[in-house]
Amino acid sequence: MTKDNDQTEKTRAPKAARHGLVALGLAAIVAGMVGLSFAAVPLYRIFCQQTGYAGTPQRASVAPDQVSDQTVNVRFDANTMPDMPWRFVPEKNEMTVRIGASNLAFFKATNLSDEPIVGTAVFNVAPNSAAQYFNKIQCFCFTQQRLEPGETIEMPVTFFIEPGFLDNVSTKHIQDITLSYTFYRDKGQGVAAAPAESGDKSGS
């Protein structure tokens, strides 16, 4: 091997090492980004539930003692994803509720398929500014729901609107609020909790 060839080989070795380090670094960055993308969904949902951001209602254990005579109309919207073979509807399309009072609404779901289906409901409130004052005490959306073929269940939602709704300049003039749900099929068909307590559980 000549002196020039020897020098060339010595030059190539550090370059190859540097290229290898760059490749490893890029792979680590990509892996980190993938990990963050998976973590972002639950973290974003927690953030929304804590702040009411993006129309996400908050969760509470009890309704407040203060109840106003002022009312607001709450409309109910029910949807399913295209691959979800359920019929999902509100029992009533809307309710007139007093600010601060506890209210009970019902939704019905029927499994139209010939196999057990596990579903999860996501929810939001419109307009977004009202979400931080819209609180749920009980909701079928807190757990997965499993329906056998042809089964129908009635699912309750207990909610209230905080009195602070009337003190906020961006919400105190709102007359109508929409509570919307969308059911997604659980692809993993995980073990679901018992269906929400139901007054109607039939095979029709």
From TrEMBL:
GO terms for cellular component: plasma membrane. Residues 41-204 are periplasmic. Coiled coil: none annotated. Pfam families: CtaG_Cox11. Keywords: Cell inner membrane, Cell membrane, Copper, Membrane, Signal-anchor, Transmembrane, Transmembrane helix. InterPro entries: CtaG/Cox11_dom_sf, Cyt_c_oxidase_assmbl_CtaG. Residues 1-17 are cytoplasmic. It is found in: Cell inner membrane. The chain crosses the membrane at residues 21-44. GO terms for molecular function: copper ion binding. It is a single-pass type II membrane protein. One of its GO terms (biological process) is respiratory chain complex IV assembly. Belongs to the COX11/CtaG family. Exerts its effect at some terminal stage of cytochrome c oxidase synthesis, probably by being involved in the insertion of the copper B into subunit I. NCBIfam families: PRK05089.1. This is Cytochrome c oxidase assembly protein CtaG.
